[in-house]
Amino acid sequence: MTNVRALKGRDYITLMDYTTDEIKYLLNLSRDLKSRYYQGERYNDILRGRTLLMIFEKPSTRTRVSLDAAATQLGMHVIYSNPQELQLGRGETIADTARVVDRFVDAIAARVYKHESLIEMAKYAVVPVINALSDKEHPLQALADALTLWEVRSRLEGLRIAFVGDGDNNIAHSLMIIGAKLGWEVRIISPRKYWPTKFAELLTEDTRRTGANIMISDNTEDVRGVDAVYTDVWVSMGMETEAEERKKVFRSYQVNAELMRKAGPQAVFMHCLPAHRGEEVTDDVIDGPQSVVWDQAENRLHTAKAVLISLLA
Question: Which residues does the annotation say bind L-ornithine (predicted)?
Answer without folding.
Answer: 170, 232, 236-237
